[in-house]
Structures are given as structure tokens and as C-alpha cells.
Amino acid sequence: MSRRLGMLCLGGALFVLVPSSAQGQQAEPKDARALFAEASEAYEMGRFEEALGKYQDAYRQNKLPGFLFNMAQCHYNVGRFDKAAFLYQSYLETDPPADRREVAEAQLAAAQAARAEQQEKERLLLLAAQVDNARQERAVEDGAGDAAGRAVTPTPPVEPPAAEDDNAPAWVMWTAAGTAGAVAAATFVAASAVAAVVVWQGRQTPAPSAGTVDWRAAAAP
Question: What's the rounded Cα separation, in Å, for the pair 21 and 14?
Fold first, then answer.
């Protein structure tokens, strides 16, 4: 009986150790240094989204200040200037050394300027779309009015052109001038908006030249 009990205890001990042994064979999670190395390699290859994800994973494991700067660089390179500016500012709040602070401040200013340009481009695109929609609606209304006039009013006989009347009522001339002015103003606004959009689309915000910080700089206080 005691021998049987001992075998059960031994069997129980082996059963408990099996999960521990199996767990030890599983792949261990990568540490922050390994993730940092992979992120830096992806960044150098221009795979900024991949680099960002790995920098974020590394930061979750070890909240080193340099990770904030590197994540900001990734956001900047894919055009998310608002998030880049936020992370540059977060990095500056960690009180980095003077030389790194100078670089981060320059990058923050570049991100803020790029975001302002981005917002202006969005505003001009919206303005151009609004002007184009208004022009199309006016063309539809004018076409419908002309069609209705042709259906109701008979075609008048052709008459010789009347001589110019220097005594024509002033309101007639002012009305014609006002109509022409409104059309010219609308055309000018539309052309200006479209021209501005073309200019903004042709401008490319230069990518930051600071690169990323290495592991030693990231880990430095």
C-alpha cells in the first residue's frame, strides 16, 4: 500500500514538472535591446511603420527616453507630424543632455512647421472643392433656366442691331458690370485655390536629418 502511494506521489511530481519543462522550451520574449536593434535596422531600410512598432514594444519593456525620440522620427517620416511633435516634446520633458536637446528642439520646430503646411494644404483643397461645387450647381441652374425659357418664350424675329445709346439708364450698366465682376471674382478665387493646391502638392517637407539615437544614447539618463 505504501509502495503504491509512493509511486503515485512520484507520478504526481513528474506530472507537475512536465509543464515547467515544456514552458522552458518555448521562445522567450525578446528583450528591449533586441527589439531596439531590429527597429533600428528597419528604420535604416525605410520601413518606418515596422520600426515604429518595434520601438513601441521596446519602450513598453524599458521606458528609455531615447525611444521617444526614435518613435517621433518614425511618425515624422510617414507624415504624422502632430504625433511626431507630441513625442519630441515628451522627449524634451525627460531633460536630455544639451546636445540632444538642441537636436530635439530643431526636430520639434520642423514637425510643427510641417503640420502647419499640411493644414494649409487641407484648407486649400477644401476651398477648391467648394468653389468647384458652387460652379457646377450654378451651371445646372443656368441650364435649367435656359431650357425653361426656350420652352415658354417663342423665338423673336431677328432685328437689326440697335445703335448704341449713350443715354442708357445707369442701372443697366451697373448691373452688367456687377454680373461680370461676380463671375470674374469667382473665377479668380477658383483659379487661385487650384494654383495654390498645385504649389502645395509640389512641395515636399524634407525628412529629418537627425536619424535615430543608438542604444547607448537611448539608455543614457
Answer: 10
What's the pTM?
0.55
Average pLDDT per block of 10 residues along the chain, 221 residues long: 42 33 47 93 96 96 94 97 97 96 97 94 88 84 69 59 54 47 50 44 49 72 55
Domain boundaries along the sequence of the chain: 30-112+207-219
The architecture that CATH gives domain 30-112+207-219 is: Alpha Horseshoe (1.25)
* Distance in angstroms (rounded) separating the CA atoms of residues 165 and 66: 81
Classify residue 102 as exposed, middle or buried by CB count within 10 Å of its CB (0-12, 13-18, 19+).
Answer: exposed
Q: What is the DSSP letter of 29?
A: P
State how far the Cα of 6 lies from the Cα of 26, in Å rounded to an integer. Answer: 31
Determine the angle formed by the axes of helices 170-202 and 98-152, rounding to 10 degrees. Answer: 140
